[in-house]
Amino acid sequence: MTISLDSQLSALNASIEELAARSAVLANTLEEAHEAEACTALFEVERSLRMASRSADRARRALSK
Questions:
Q1: What is the mean pLDDT of residues 27-52?
Q2: Is the dihedral of CA 23, 26, 27, 28 positive or negative?
Q3: Domain map (residue ranges) of the chain
Q4: Which residues contact 12 (CB under 8 A, 6 or more apart)?
Q5: Chain segment 42-63, per-residue pLDDT in tens
Q6: CA–CA separation, 44 vs 20, rounded Å?
Q7: What single string gives the DSSP state of each residue in 4-62?
Q8: Using CA atoms, how far apart are residues 22 and 11, in angstroms rounded to an integer?
């Protein structure tokens, strides 16, 4: 794999991880504010982003073979 693709996938994964972390922080804030529906939705966002991160990492590993 070229360095460019590797760095692009790495940057993509870092962005996804950052968004997942931000979603979790917001969800925890809403949980403390007793906003259950919004909290649940944001935890779903976090889980989806974590899955996306794993998929991006899998793509990166597949290209490095």
A1: 97
A2: positive
A3: 3-63
A4: 56
A5: 999 999 999 999 999 999 999 8
A6: 10
A7: HHHHHHHHHHHHHHHHHHHHHHHHHHHHHTT-HHHHHHHHHHHHHHHHHHHHHHHHHHH
A8: 17
- pLDDT-derived band at 65 (thresholds 50, 70, 90) equals confident
> What angle, rounded to 10 degrees, do the helices at 3-32 and 36-63 form?
170
* The total number of residues written for the chain in this structure: 65
Backbone dihedral angles phi then psi of residue 34, each to the nearest 5 degrees:
60, 40
Question: Which two structure tokens, joined as six digits, stand for 26?
Answer: 């917001």
pLDDT for res 2: 64
**Residue 3 confidence class, pLDDT cut points 50, 70, 90:** confident
